[in-house]
Structure formats: structure tokens, C-alpha cells
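Why do we care about 3D structure at all? Because function follows from shape, and shape follows, mostly, from sequence. That is the central idea of this module. The next example makes it concrete: a single protein chain, its amino acid sequence, and then its structure expressed as C-alpha cells.
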Amino acid sequence: MANTLAIAGKELRSYFASPIAYVVIGLYALLFGYFFLLFLTAFAEQSMRMAAMGMNQPVNVNQMMIRPMLGNMSVIGLFILPMLTMRAYAEEKRSGTFELLLTAPLTDLQIVLGKFLGSLSLYTIMLAVSSLNVLLLFWWGNPEWRQVATSYLGLFFIGASFIALGLFISSLTKNQIVAGIITFAVALILWVISWVGDSAGELGRAIVSGLSVIEHYDDFSKGVVDTKHVVYYLSFIAFGLFLTVKSVDSERWRG
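And the structure:
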């Protein structure tokens, strides 16, 4: 475990030693702030419109603002998360440091888990920075905190899944740009695959919905933590890490 945490710490420090961490965190915070302002403005206008019409029923801030806003951020992850993982193995292969890593007294699993935890730590920081905007709503309003918490849990699972996918793809190439593009393409397919299910019949819709990463997020955004969705994300992560371990192992044998 100590070796895994050491690699995770090294990976996290490497992000902040380059512009990657600052660009990714800044971009994510900027986009989150834009959507926050956009949905907050729409929510305020809707509230004033209802008040002017004499409609005194309370307006649900979770349904009208927080849920669609965080839903949009789940899609933004498709574009940003490949930036976190594209260099994980590809850059080390290109620079020749990957061979040094393989000759260290570390198992393949420790290497993979360490890099996964390092990337996941940076993504967690991104989510923490974005949550500062949501905390303002608790200061001025009364959102349902459970729904906010489960929505962020869903975002965490989506991010962890894409990171596991990205690490595997990065382990297959020496070019980090290629790794980033392929990761984005595969993640995009896993997102839009649900559109195919709309015209595939009931059985086809069920199968396709089961494969879609975004479809499993919907219940989290409603404040529901369903075991089947948790199992799906954990299985996705485990399978991605398993493939990465096998890829690293093949590099060790070839080296």
C-alpha cells in the first residue's frame, strides 16, 4: 500500500509541476461558473415570473437549477478528463522513464493503482473547487443536500470510470495526443450510445442503456443511490484497471 500511495503522490505532484493541473482545474472551474451563472439567472427569472403571476408555491432549486447544471458538468467531463490521463503512460514511454518504472521493485498492480489514485485525486480537487459555487446556494437558499451529495457522488463515479478507461488507452501508445483523442472518442461513444437505444426496441434499449455511462448517472442526480448503478461503475473501473495491468505486464515482458 505504501508503494501505491508513493506513486499516487508522485503522479499528483507531476500534474502540478506542469501547467496541466492548473489548466484543467481552471477550465473546469470556469465552465462550472458559467453554467452556475446561466442556470442561476434562469432560476431567478422563473421565480420572479411565478411571483408576478401570483403563484406562491415554492420553487424547487434542486430540480430547476442544480440537477441540470450538474448534468451538464457530467458531459463536460468527456472533454476534460482525457487531458488527465493521456500522459500517464504515453509520456513516460516517450521519454524512456517507463522502463525505469518497470525495473523498480513494484508490482504492475501497484503502478496502475498508484497512477489511478493520483489522477483521481486531481479530479476530486476539481469537484471540490466546483462545489464552492454550490455552497453559495446553501448560504442564500435551502437546497436538498442529499440530492446534491448523490449528484456529486455520481460525478465522482463517472470521472473514476473515464480515468480508468483513459489509463488503459494511454498504456497502449507512446503519443499522448493520440491517447487523449482515442479516450475522448470512446467516452463519447459510451455517452451517445443511449441515443441508439431509442430506436432499437425494448430489449435493445435495455441493453444499450445498461452500457451507457451517462444513463447510470440519472438516478444519482435525482437523489437516489441504486446498487445496480454503483455496481456498474465499480465494475467499469475494475475492468479498466484490469486491462491496464495486463497492458503494463505485456510491456514488462516485451522489455
